[in-house]
Every structure is written in structure tokens, then in C-alpha cells.
Write a structure and sequence with these properties.
Elements: H1 2-20, H2 24-31, E1 41-55, E2 58-71, E3 76-84, E4 88-97, E5 106-111, E6 119-120, E7 123-131, E8 137-146, E9 154-156, E10 163-173, E11 176-183, E12 190-197, E13 200-210, H3 222-225, E14 228-238, E15 241-244, H4 249-261, H5 271-278, H6 284-298, E16 300-301, E17 304-305, H7 316-322, E18 324-325, H8 327-340, E19 344-350, E20 369-376, E21 379-383, E22 403-408, E23 411-416, E24 426-436, E25 439-448, H9 450-460, H10 465-476, E26 485-490, E27 500-508, E28 512-515, E29 518-521, E30 542-543, E31 548-557, E32 562-566, E33 571-574, E34 578-587, E35 590-599, E36 603-604, H11 609-624, E37 627-631
Parallel strand pairs: 1-10, 6-17, 16-18, 24-31
Antiparallel strand pairs: 1-2, 2-8, 3-7, 4-8, 5-7, 9-14, 10-13, 11-14, 12-13, 14-15, 19-20, 19-22, 20-21, 22-23, 24-25, 25-27, 26-27, 28-29, 29-37, 30-36, 31-35, 32-37, 33-34, 34-35
């Protein structure tokens, strides 16, 4: 009887507890909203308040986050993450049920690791808890402090979970000069209010029914698509007068240069190496190339960002002796080695194409990369030593068209990296084929340039020796059967300055079907892009990570006693963003197949998804439409 009483009390307590901390009506209403279709948790209310606090000669910024979460299913393990680093300190946090009852917090703190190539000083504390029931409501709050407003650069509206009501506010004293730049507001119902409150200007942004911040493959990234704010802290008044933070690109450059001046480069350790590299070189270009390629080959790229060190290069001799460095360290070593050789070399700040901003926005968020520029007479060479297989005079896709901030003493030069034509990434295939019985036999030549060449070289040089053959065999003929014969007759050499070229031969048994007097032949077994139908609900442009140019040319010798009775119709389509040219022709005793596909900027814009999908369907129809040869006797 006593056990039954205890059980009843426990059940009643759990029931009361669940009712006090759940809101089934709210949960059901949120489940019905389209942006919450796959959500397990929704932030039904989220606010971030940034307050600028001048004190004496210093300016700090506090951030207060308050997030009210509700679960859309029960018994759900969850974690809240709070990020910090050398310039952002978490001052306090709290986790509780809506009833006010505190929740036992199990936390794990440590370095934050990203899938990107950058390591950083970013750290994260993850607070683990459980949503007991469907509709459980839990409130999380945290307070952080920026010790330097330079490091408050971007504020996003979206987070990992959908949000029903979002508010972002900035309280800025009238003695502090801050500009807030709005990005990607189109398509989002974001409201803005500006008011004066007790000597402060208060900016308040509100938004309803925000989807979760999601990433998509083959996308330029969140900065191109998701609504966010760029915070430009320019200056503030102090007891001794106005103090500049970053009010212009001049200020940004001065700060960068002040960090560079703190680097104590000592070329003694690599002077002898430089002399060996340029010995025998007859021209300036040959000397630059020798030094540039040596850094690419011998210094391992390990990107690292650590507070000030995220913007301050490592000393050149340290990078040289360690044989590794981040982009800044590698750029600095390249510059110092070129200076030893007598060249006018400059450090250069740049943002990769993942960042859509120019230096018109004077902020640390404008760039994430450093390279080296060397001037020889009226010619300028752009050197990115982190790009292992990019030749001198060529530029990686990720920096093409991007603005550079080039070192020039106390001044600077702004200039854009040249943009190459799609032909720079040409993948060209030529094959001569014949039919022998049930086999298609042939010889082929494949040439890869630019980003395609770079990708293959990275893959082929980072696999085991016995696996390299598979890489090149599959480049020669994709999806061949075990009974087929594929032989690469000339293995490509690793040469930055030339296209990656290979020759091959093959004998394939699965490309011909025979019925009565007819032969049905498949000539293109790569079938480029045939399955690339872009989903209607995709929210970002489709990015191939490079401009695309593919040419395929095949010539089939018609077998004696057969004539062509059917050819696919081919297609010819072109607009400002992409083009497809495909043809099947009989020329004398040869059947000639040509296929050329170009994506001029490497991007399929959202508004052209229907056009692209229509063309891909037509492309696939041609791939699947067999050539028919009929026996004449």
C-alpha cells in the first residue's frame, strides 16, 4: 500500500511538473508552420542586445542573449552552445524552465573545430540538457563581453533552430560612432526602429518566423544569402579626445601594418637557400618562379587564427624552419625570400570568394586571406603560396575578381585580381573509336587545366602509390566493368606550368547492344551533368566552385557493311550564364560526336534553375538516345 502511495505521488508530481513547464498549444501551432517542418526544437522568442560601453580610453561591448526554446517532441537530448575567444569572454549564463526552476547544467568547454580549412582560437561551451515532454519550454540566457569593438563584425538573424520571434538591438551612446550595414534583407520581413533613449541611439531589428540557418552544398555561403548586419565601429570620444577604432580603409590598413611591424623577420636562416634556388636562373620570372614553387612544395599549409595572431604574420624564419605556416606566414616567407633575391615584394590582404564584401566596408570581416604581390617593372605577379598546384601567372578561382589591399609603406594600393575566362579550366577529351565484334575499342587523350587540374593533382598525389592507377583509369573511362580493359599509356606528370595530359586505350564490352540487323551504340559514358537537376526549394545559387568548360570530341569509324539509320538530335542552347552544344554527324565513313558545356561564371543563379533543369532533361534524353547502325547486307 505504501509503495502504491509513493507511485501515485510520483506520477502526480511528474504530471504537475510537465503541465507547469509545457505549452502544447504553442508547440502545435509552431508545428503547423512550414519553416518548422523538420524541426525538433524552435526558439519561439530570441533576443540579442548589444550595448557599447565607453570607459575612459577604452570601449567595450556587452552582448546579452535571451532565448526561449520549446520542444516539438519529447525526451529530446539537446545542447546550447556559447562561443568565445581571446577577445570575447562569457561572463555568465543561466538555464531554467519557464516556471523559473533551474536546470542542472552539464557543460563541456573547449576548442571549436570547423569543417573549413581554418583552425582558430574560437572556443565553445556546450550546455547539455533534456526536453522531457513534447512542448517543454526552457529559457537560456548568457552575457558576453568584447574587449575590443574591432572584433564585433557580423550579427546573424538566424541560428541553428527556426525562430518564431527574433529581436536584435544595439544601444550606442551618442559619444560612440557606429554604422550598421544591412545585408540580404530581401525576402525576410525584417522591421527596423531607431530611437533616442537617455543619451543613446537604440537600433532595434525584429523579424518573425525565421527558418533555421542552413548550409547547402555547392553554395557560395551564408554571407551571400542569409540576412545579417555588419557592425562598423568607427570612433568614440574619450577624456583625451576622439579615439579612432576603424573609420576607413586607411585605418584598417594602418592597424594591419602596425601588426606587421611587430614581426621580427630575420632572413639569415634562408639566405643560402634563396641563392641556391635562383642560381642559374636567367630572368626575373625564372627567379620568382623558383622561390614561389619552393614555398608551395616545401611549406605545409596549416591555417591558424589566434586572436591578434589571426591578423599578424608569423616571422619568416619560423615558418622556414618549422616547414609549416598559415596563409599569413607563408605570404610573409614568400615576401622575405623574394626580398633576399632583390625583388620588390609586398604583403597583400584579400578576402576569398566566400566573402562578398570589398574594402568599401572597413572591417576585419572583409578579408580572410593573405598573399604576396611582387612588382617587376610594369608587371605584377600575384603569388598565393597556399595554392600548391597553381602556376606563376595564374590565379586560383577563389581569389579571382576579389579586391586586394596591397602593402605600400604607409599607404596602400587597392586592385582586383584578374578574372580568367572559362577556357582556363578547360577539360578536353578526344577519342578515336572503332567497333570490333561486340567491343568498342579506342584511344583517347584527356587534358585538364586550371581548377580541374589542381583537383586531380591534389587527389593523385595524396593517395597511396597503388591507388594512383585507379584515379587515372577512372579519369580515362568512368564506370568500366571488370571485363573491360583500360590502360593509361602515358601517366600525367606533375607540372604546374602545363596542362595535365594523359593518353589511354580501352576495350569496352558494355557499350553496344545488338538486335537482329541493328547495333545500338552508346558513345558518351561520362554523361556530364545528366543527373544535376536542381531542387525547387533550394535557397542559394548553385556554385560549381569554378568556371566550367568541358569539351568532348569522339570519332567512330563506321564498320564495313553498316549504315547510320538513327542519330540523336543533339542540342544547341545558350544564355548569359551557361551554354550546351551537342551534335551527332556522319562525315564520310566517320561518325563524329561533339559535346561542349560551359558555365561562364561557374554559377547557376536561382532564377535560372527552371531553364537549367529543362536543359539537363534534354541533355539526358540525348545521352539515352542510342546511335543505331543497321547492317546493309
Amino acid at each position: 500500500m505504501r509503495l502504491l502511495f509513493v507511485a501515485l505521488i510520483s506520477f502526480t508530481s511528474a504530471s504537475v511538473f510537465s503541465q507547469k513547464n509545457t505549452n502544447i498549444q504553442r508547440a502545435n501551432a509552431l508545428k503547423a508552420l512550414p519553416q518548422n517542418k523538420n524541426a525538433k526544437v524552435v526558439a519561439y522568442r530570441s533576443s540579442s542586445a548589444y550595448t557599447f560601453l565607453p570607459a575612459g580610453e577604452q570601449l567595450t561591448v556587452t552582448r546579452q542573449d535571451n532565448i526561449d526554446l520549446i520542444s516539438l517532441q519529447g525526451n529530446l537530448n539537446y545542447s546550447m552552445n556559447v562561443f568565445y575567444n581571446n577577445h570575447v569572454k562569457v561572463e555568465n549564463y543561466d538555464l531554467k524552465y519557464t516556471s523559473g526552476k533551474s536546470i542542472k547544467k552539464e557543460s563541456v568547454c573547449g576548442n571549436y573545430e570547423s569543417e573549413s580549412i581554418f583552425y582558430s582560437d574560437a572556443k565553445v561551451c556546450s550546455y547539455y540538457f533534456n526536453f522531457l515532454y513534447d512542448g517543454t519550454e526552457i529559457s537560456f540566457s548568457s552575457k558576453s563581453k568584447y574587449d575590443d569593438p574591432r572584433y564585433l563584425t557580423k550579427v546573424f538573424f538566424q541560428d541553428d533552430e527556426p525562430c518564431d520571434s527574433r529581436e536584435i538591438s544595439f544601444t550606442i551612446p551618442n559619444s560612440v560612432n557606429v554604422e550598421i550595414v544591412e545585408k540580404n534583407f530581401s525576402g525576410f520581413n525584417i522591421q527596423k526602429k531607431v530611437e533616442q533613449v537617455g543619451g543613446n541611439t537604440v537600433y532595434t531589428y525584429t523579424c518573425k518566423q525565421l527558418p533555421a540557418l542552413m548550409s547547402e552544398e555547392n553554395s557560395l555561403g551564408a554571407l551571400y544569402n542569409n540576412p545579417h548586419l555588419i557592425v562598423l565601429t568607427k570612433d568614440f570620444q574619450t577624456p583625451s579626445g576622439k579615439k579612432t577604432v576603424i573609420s576607413s580603409v586607411d585605418d584598417l590598413y594602418k592597424w594591419y601594418v602596425s601588426l606587421v611591424k611587430e614581426v621580427n623577420n630575420d632572413p639569415a636562416s634562408f639566405k643560402e637557400q634563396v641563392q641556391k634556388l635562383i642560381e642559374g636562373a636567367k630572368t626575373s620570372e625564372e627567379k620568382i618562379k623558383a622561390i614561389y614553387y619552393w614555398v608551395q612544395d616545401n611549406i605545409k599549409y596549416i591555417a591558424f587564427e589566434d586572436g591578434i595572431a589571426g591578423f599578424k604574420p608569423e616571422a619568416a624564419q619560423n615558418v622556414y624552419n618549422n616547414r609549416f605556416g598559415d596563409c599569413k606566414g607563408m605570404a610573409n616567407l614568400t615576401k622575405e625570400m623574394l626580398k633576399v633575391a632583390g625583388f620588390d615584394a609586398r604583403l597583400t590582404w584579400i578576402g576569398t570568394n566566400r566573402i562578398p564584401y570589398t574594402y568599401d566596408l572597413p572591417s576585419l570581416c572583409v578579408d580572410n586571406h593573405m598573399i604576396c604581390v611582387v612588382n617587376v617593372g610594369d608587371k605584377q605577379y600575384i603569388l598565393d603560396s597556399t595554392e600548391k598546384y597553381v602556376a606563376l601567372g595564374k590565379n586560383a578561382e577563389r581569389i579571382q575578381g576579389k579586391e586586394m589591399l596591397i602593402e605600400n609603406g604607409d599607404k596602400f594600393t587597392r586592385k582586383k585580381v584578374p578574372v580568367s575566362d572559362p577556357i582556363a579550366n578547360l577539360v578536353s577529351r578526344k577519342e578515336a573509336l572503332s567497333i570490333e565484334g561486340d567491343l568498342i575499342k579506342g584511344q583517347g587523350e584527356l587534358a585538364l587545366n586550371g581548377e580541374a587540374k589542381k583537383t586531380v593533382l591534389y587527389v593523385s598525389t595524396n593517395v597511396k602509390q597503388e591507388d594512383q592507377k585507379k584515379v587515372f583509369d577512372n579519369l580515362a573511362v568512368s564506370e568500366y566493368a571488370n571485363s573491360d580493359k583500360v590502360e593509361v599509356t602515358s601517366t600525367p606528370s606533375v607540372d604546374r606550368d602545363k596542362p595535365l595530359e594523359m593518353k589511354y586505350s580501352f576495350s569496352l564490352a558494355n557499350k553496344i547492344s545488338k538486335f537482329d540487323r541493328d547495333l545500338y551504340i552508346d558513345l558518351d559514358w561520362n554523361k556530364s551533368f545528366q543527373n544535376l537537376i536542381i531542387e525547387d526549394d533550394r535557397f542559394s545559387d548553385y556554385y560549381f566552385n569554378r568556371k566550367v568548360k568541358q569539351k568532348t570530341s569522339k570519332k567512330l569509324k563506321l564498320p564495313l557493311g553498316y549504315k547510320v539509320t538513327h542519330l540523336p538530335k543533339g542540342m544547341s542552347r545558350k544564355n548569359a550564364e551557361f551554354a550546351v552544344e551537342m551534335s551527332f554527324k556522319q562525315i564520310g565513313t566517320d561518325l563524329v560526336y561533339e559535346n561542349e558545356i560551359t558555365v561562364f561564371r561557374g554559377i547557376i543563379p536561382k532564377q535560372l534553375f527552371p531553364t537549367w533543369n529543362e536543359w539537363v532533361k534534354e541533355l539526358k534524353e540525348n545521352y539515352n538516345d542510342k546511335i543505331v547502325l543497321t547492317k546493309t547486307k
